[in-house]
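pls design
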């Protein structure tokens, strides 16, 4: 099956005409490029904004921007738009270490005590190899990305921290480990980290739009991030040191780049013009399994696994919850997919997953085309729709019409049945959601009684129970200071969250009001907790008269909302098999 898919791609490329340039947005090449572009244009209608590059056998199939990089100013995303590539930064740090090793200035087998004074006994066995492969036993971070953290303080925090387990015994992703590697790059090279990358990696590869501070971007070339409908700005709008990010971020993330520059890096690696083939072989060796089943391994700054076609994939993604990027390389198929985006609710990592399957012959779920409708006509559909049997209600209101996007309707569920209906949850999903809710309630109630172990299990964290307890007590104290003594909690329901994950909504009742908490799940663990005024709901966009749809880019699940007028002004809302009526 895989060979037939690759043959199809090759035939399409062979039959393709010369590049069809679209100056304002990018390049689309041949039937395959058109097919991908159609899919992405449909996604753009539902809110996707980002830049993508797909190349096969050294030819660009598609390189184009979609949506707006700056909603307020109406600036479109283009191939020249720079975005935060997140943890893809790590493979640049790893390349710098390997470059220095090829020059005889260090060895990946060196213990960190060669580069840092006062290394305690429990960390004396940590080597550069351990840092490169996330097997040093270090915790992930020592603060927020934009928290002030000078280099020496970061080193001190890492050396003073308690190891999660002995070096070399287990994999545990550690951003701090890569910040230590960036520190070693500075110590060995005698240059600031970004200067070394620019001089030894970026410039030789022809990359002029990649870096922290040293690259020259025009204001309109920087993507603005968005958390839902709230502007976040560009990374340069946030607190950085004069020469780049503080050290909780430096070396492990935060570099800005473009899809075009990342492709130049791919080409330089392919040619061996920046990093030798021997050094690359070390980087691509599957050193440490990332999961118990060994489906994916970590090399040096790259993850190595098998892609949709069963062949080797060398990849890394990155993001901070707003910006997201994915860099997938299939060396045996001479295929590369590079994506970037700057919004929390339509991350390019999810889009890249669908594209990779498409390129290996697996058809993704194609979203319908958005058909703009008059905002006034949509507003007449607003109101409260009661589910039959008292199962809750669906509150429909005009959705925020983002710049460059069609007006729609926001549907907010109230009640567990309403949440399940809006999510289109099957029986198995409902059982899973009920189990998640039960675990969460037990953990929250136990924490109120002083037992924080269940909460640690729900969070899936390796942090000491004492730290989780201290953080939780501080959080509750802040809530009670604002709202008065806590009285009870009420589970509102579980539905779709950002990036297609499940999200459980809980209303916390206090003496002087309520607060809604959202718990975002990644499998069986809560990965993000936020306090918000009310559940976010789902925005549906028009795909026909009185028919609207919401598309989940991760699962490919499509929800349709159909409004039907009845006698006496009554209106029925149908979502799947569920009906609700407005009087």
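designed seq:
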């Amino acid at each position: 099956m895989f060979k037939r898919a690759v043959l199809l791609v090759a035939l399409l490329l062979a039959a393709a005409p010369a590049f069809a340039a679209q100056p304002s947005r990018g390049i689309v090449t041949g039937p395959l490029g058109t097919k991908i572009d159609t899919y992405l244009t449909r996604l753009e209608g539902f809110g996707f904004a980002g830049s993508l590059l797909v190349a096969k056998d050294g030819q660009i199939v598609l390189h184009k921007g979609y949506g707006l990089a700056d909603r307020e100013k109406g600036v479109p995303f283009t191939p020249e738009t720079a975005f935060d590539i997140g943890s893809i930064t790590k493979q640049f740090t790893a390349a710098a270490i390997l470059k220095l090793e090829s020059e005889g200035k260090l060895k990946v087998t060196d213990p960190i005590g060669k580069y840092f004074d006062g290394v305690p006994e429990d960390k004396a066995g940590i080597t550069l190899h351990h840092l490169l492969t996330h097997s040093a036993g270090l915790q992930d971070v020592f603060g927020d990305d934009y928290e002030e953290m000078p280099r020496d303080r970061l080193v001190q925090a890492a050396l003073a921290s308690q190891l999660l387990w002995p070096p070399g015994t287990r994999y545990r992703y550690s951003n701090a480990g890569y910040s230590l590697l960036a520190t070693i790059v500075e110590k060995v090279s005698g240059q600031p980290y970004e200067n070394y990358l620019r001089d030894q990696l970026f410039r030789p590869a022809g990359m002029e739009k990649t870096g922290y501070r040293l690259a020259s971007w025009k204001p309109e070339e920087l993507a603005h991030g968005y958390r839902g409908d709230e502007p976040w700005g560009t990374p340069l709008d946030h607190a950085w040191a004069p020469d780049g990010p503080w050290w909780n971020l430096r070396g492990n993330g935060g570099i800005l780049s473009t899809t075009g520059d990342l492709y130049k890096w791919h080409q330089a690696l392919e040619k061996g013009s920046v990093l030798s083939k021997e050094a690359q072989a070390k980087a691509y060796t599957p050193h440490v399994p990332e999961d118990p089943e060994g489906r994916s391994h970590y090399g040096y700054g790259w993850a190595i696994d098998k892609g949709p076609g069963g062949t080797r994939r060398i990849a890394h993604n990155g993001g901070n919850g707003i910006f997201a990027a994915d860099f997938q390389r299939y060396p045996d198929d001479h295929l590369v997919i590079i994506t970037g985006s700057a919004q929390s609710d339509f991350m390019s990592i999810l889009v890249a997953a669908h594209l990779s399957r498409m390129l290996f012959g697996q058809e993704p779920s194609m979203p319908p085309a958005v058909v703009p409708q008059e905002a006034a006509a949509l507003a007449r559909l607003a109101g409260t729709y009661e589910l039959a049997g008292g199962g809750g209600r669906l509150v429909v209101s005009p959705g925020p019409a983002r710049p460059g996007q069609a007006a729609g309707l926001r549907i907010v569920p109230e009640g567990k049945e309403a949440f399940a209906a809006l999510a289109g949850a099957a029986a198995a999903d409902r059982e899973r959601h009920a189990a998640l809710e039960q675990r969460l309630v037990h953990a929250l109630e136990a924490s109120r009684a002083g037992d924080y172990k269940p909460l640690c299990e729900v969070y899936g964290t390796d942090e000491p129970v004492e730290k989780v307890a201290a953080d939780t007590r501080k959080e509750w104290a802040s809530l009670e200071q604002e709202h008065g003594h806590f009285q009870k909690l009420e589970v509102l329901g579980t539905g779709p969250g950002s990036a297609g994950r499940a999200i459980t909504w809980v209303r916390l009742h206090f003496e002087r009001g309520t607060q809604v908490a959202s718990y975002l799940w990644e499998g069986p663990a809560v990965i993000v907790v936020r306090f918000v005024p009310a559940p976010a709901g789902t925005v549906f966009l028009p795909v026909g008269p009185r028919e609207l749809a919401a598309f989940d880019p991760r699962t490919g699940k499509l929800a349709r909302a159909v409004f039907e007028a009845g006698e006496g002004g009554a209106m029925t809302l149908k979502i799947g098999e569920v009906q609700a009526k407005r009087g």
